[in-house]
TrEMBL record, chains A, B:
The keyword Oxidoreductase applies. One of its GO terms (biological process) is lactate catabolic process. The keyword Oxidoreductase applies. This is D-lactate dehydrogenase (cytochrome). Keywords: FAD, Flavoprotein, Oxidoreductase, Transit peptide. Its cofactor is FAD. It comes from Parvibaculum sedimenti. Its EC number is 1.1.2.4.
Amino acid sequence: MNEREELPAIDELRTLLGGRLTTSLPIREAHGRDESWHPVAPPDAVAFATSTKEVSEIVRICAQHRFPVIAFGTGTSLEGHISAPHGGLSLDLSRMNRILEVNAADLDVHLEAGVTRKALNAWLRDMGLFFPIDPGADASLGGMAATRASGTNAVRYGTMRENVLNLTAVMADGSIVHTAHRARKSAAGYDLTRLLVGSEGTLGIITELTLKLYGIPEAIASGVVSFPNFEGAIDAVIETIQTGLPVARIEFLDEVQVEACNRYSKLSLPVAPLLLVEFHGSEASVAEQAERFGFIAGEHGGGAFEWAVKAEERTKLWEARHNSLYAALALQPGKKGLISDVCVPISRLAEAISGTKEDLKSSPLVAPIVGHVGDGNFHLIMLVDPENAAEVAEAQRIHDRMVMRALSLDGTCTGEHGIGEGKRKFLAAEHGEGVAVMHTIKQALDPLNILNPGKMLPA
Amino acid sequence: MNEREELPAIDELRTLLGGRLTTSLPIREAHGRDESWHPVAPPDAVAFATSTKEVSEIVRICAQHRFPVIAFGTGTSLEGHISAPHGGLSLDLSRMNRILEVNAADLDVHLEAGVTRKALNAWLRDMGLFFPIDPGADASLGGMAATRASGTNAVRYGTMRENVLNLTAVMADGSIVHTAHRARKSAAGYDLTRLLVGSEGTLGIITELTLKLYGIPEAIASGVVSFPNFEGAIDAVIETIQTGLPVARIEFLDEVQVEACNRYSKLSLPVAPLLLVEFHGSEASVAEQAERFGFIAGEHGGGAFEWAVKAEERTKLWEARHNSLYAALALQPGKKGLISDVCVPISRLAEAISGTKEDLKSSPLVAPIVGHVGDGNFHLIMLVDPENAAEVAEAQRIHDRMVMRALSLDGTCTGEHGIGEGKRKFLAAEHGEGVAVMHTIKQALDPLNILNPGKMLPA
Ligand SMILES: Cc1cc2nc3c(=O)[nH]c(=O)nc-3n(C[C@H](O)[C@H](O)[C@H](O)COP(=O)(O)OP(=O)(O)OC[C@H]3O[C@@H](n4cnc5c(N)ncnc54)[C@H](O)[C@@H]3O)c2cc1C
Ligand SMILES: Cc1cc2nc3c(=O)[nH]c(=O)nc-3n(C[C@H](O)[C@H](O)[C@H](O)COP(=O)(O)OP(=O)(O)OC[C@H]3O[C@@H](n4cnc5c(N)ncnc54)[C@H](O)[C@@H]3O)c2cc1C
């Protein structure tokens, strides 16, 4: 898209938005930067929207001028999602950050897409409610829906797929759609909610969401247990899930990651593969679950099972977990993290991880493994210098092998980070003929290809 | 579609299928009959498919001849779903009834679409596993996915929306799509699984499914409690859900339905509004849940809380619940049941039910109410003589008011039975602009409109 074609769109947008439309280089660059290792192209302009109606007007103008629109939440995605390879507008929703209505009686909340998960939970705390989905970053709820995000609690509470009741979305023609009402279930029509969840800004701009909430559990207990080898840890996870123990969180950190966390978060965990678990329930049921888990861990070589039921210690451990990416990056300052996120059926988890461990043995890369293993989901963080072609190539080799191995184990190329630009090539390997169906849907709902073009679907 | 145009399609199908293609009147009529009060048009022919590949060939032939294809599971749907208003082929999947693979370790099963829920659970029982979704009828898993079915366990285990991992589907052009792999979660591409779940045979023919399974709980406890009025029963439900008690089933029967069940299933329940509940968990947790529920019920005027933990008694009670439609029909032999199914946010449930109770007070109709009330979902069964125009009109008046009331309470026009022919007029009232998006999707994926034409989407 050359300069001459862009200008009228920007002019018209400026008339609509005034100072909330900017072409300032630093702001464009800030919207052309994400948390990934991918080189990201900045947009031509950035708009800060304040209402659904305004988003609709913005999209109409962009459609008229065939000007790409890239929704922007907080820019914490990891696969080059927010890049503007074809130029266009970064549509920043962070100022749409109002919590519109909490229905405590129905355990739901209606809010604008720019509200972040931490802001939401801070707001809810006094009501005894919480929203469980917690990607490591303080992402926007709109961005989380758009990427079908999950996090540490997904094993118990599900992902964004299960926790969105209704979306308000602006479609590519500017029309405003409400995907559902507030009922917990419905058999009325195509599931537009789930079609938009995970569509990465390519089918519509999410402006408002109604989300499920949960009562803060009466009792919460967290614990850590170390294992002599990763196989023991993973076998303990598998048995925990198979026996239906309703664990709320069960996270794996390999010894490389544990050491990184010790340094970064000033902990003194034994440097060995580790599981960090949490149970939610009544006092009695939490105690029962903990006892059962302790037994399972012990059977698989787990060491002393340390409980940290005090809120303070619990918070410290989970903060360290959420900062694990930054802890990993701090191992080799200056490098970027090439992150691979895959998910496999739980029975194949040990195989998936050991394949990658095997690959790493003969590699010079430093690469911790962490995972929401209760879902069969884990991440590899390979530290690379983006300027060092050999290093990048080696990381990509290991990455590709990890993804293809996950697919061969009946898993997915991404459990939660999404496709963006980085994983487009794997979509066909995973979905085969399904990709044609996805193309047909995209073509039908966004015939001008203005919504986040160049993302998700292979060219 | 006139006879001359149909013949070549039928000829070609016969060449492909031999004796598994029939135009016999009794068989066509059996496939033009469902469990609803709707007059249903029989198809021109019935095919019994035996493999995904064959379904693909059938659909290709039908596409070539613009011959409608109506998938048929067990024909237990309630909104005229399987009717053939434009003629065409009833594609019966009941012979695709193989259970292909149980992955006990991953708690999933891969099977053909014609397997029924009872056949599946009979197969699983010895493995200590079960599949929880249980519409009253012994429906096919393909039909259940296609209608986004739920049932008594949905409050704890979710609906078909949450319990399908992967579908194999034949699209309108005959292409075969696998919507996902076996991983528990994925952020890879559009959610084709959820797009097909609930699409009522209008976007693709489901030939195989991978479903989530659950371990049969260590302990199960069922109980019944009667209330002096329905308000008390509903308030007890609301408090149970709001306090996060993980009830597995919580069913409401009003006094009219209780009396019907007493007669039909030879029970001697007090003729008063009643809740039938079930808890799943460990021995200790089930006891704890039961105690808490007993307390809540008591607070809302509930009578003595009778526990029937013995498997035999439990089965008897739940069979009576599953037979409630037939029990209702037996109240006035010869009449049909006009069933209205709505779902509202739980806080609006009492309002939704009392509005209908109010309407019924001044009506001559006999009409029991039953409901999966833990989800805010309930059904009204109005007994009508389809030949009696005044009676049908009165039933439709009450039905329309019940649906529009549910919508005004932020609910849905159908919690689980779906749209079919019967509820098309409500889809626009519920979804507004969303219906245009649904039309666009239908048009893109089935441009010849051969898959179950005349259903779900308003004309
Ligand atoms: C340290 C760290 C840890 C992480 N841990 C996890 C984790 O555990 N689990 C996990 O799932 N992810 C994780 N992530 C990834 C990231 O946080 C998630 O992908 C998150 O959902 C992105 O939200 P965002 O608001 O930052 O979206 P952005 O990065 O701004 O956008 C992401 C994509 O969604 C689109 N989008 C954004 N907002 C909207 C909208 N309103 N409407 C339509 N499209 C929109 C964008 O166009 C883009 O394609 C982590 C990231 C970091 C940096
Ligand atoms: C007594 C009774 C109680 C009931 N209770 C409940 C309940 O509690 N909860 C509930 O949800 N429903 C309930 N129902 C309704 C019914 O059982 C469900 O809708 C069920 O899911 C229908 O399954 P089926 O196999 O009979 O589908 P069918 O009636 O054969 O078909 C239903 C629809 O799905 C389509 N379809 C069928 N198979 C496929 C396939 N393989 N691929 C694509 N499309 C397909 C058909 O074209 C049709 O549009 C009840 C019905 C009765 C008679």
